[in-house]
Write a structure and sequence with these properties.
mainly alpha; elongated
Length: 68
Amino acid sequence: MQETFEAWITPIMIGGLILFMCFIIWDLARKSKAGKFGTIMLFIVLGAGMLGYVIKVIITYVMENGAV
């Protein structure tokens, strides 16, 4: 029961955290009046860590399931 709960709740909570961090980046760009280019750069630079985590999850899934 606990393993099933953890298997479901972990990706949901991490996804929520990623969405919240995207909101924080957007709010930072809006409050600093970064403009379109500045907003794009903020999302690229600050979102790189989140993208790295998502890529890690995908690579791990592919390696565990042998779907290469």
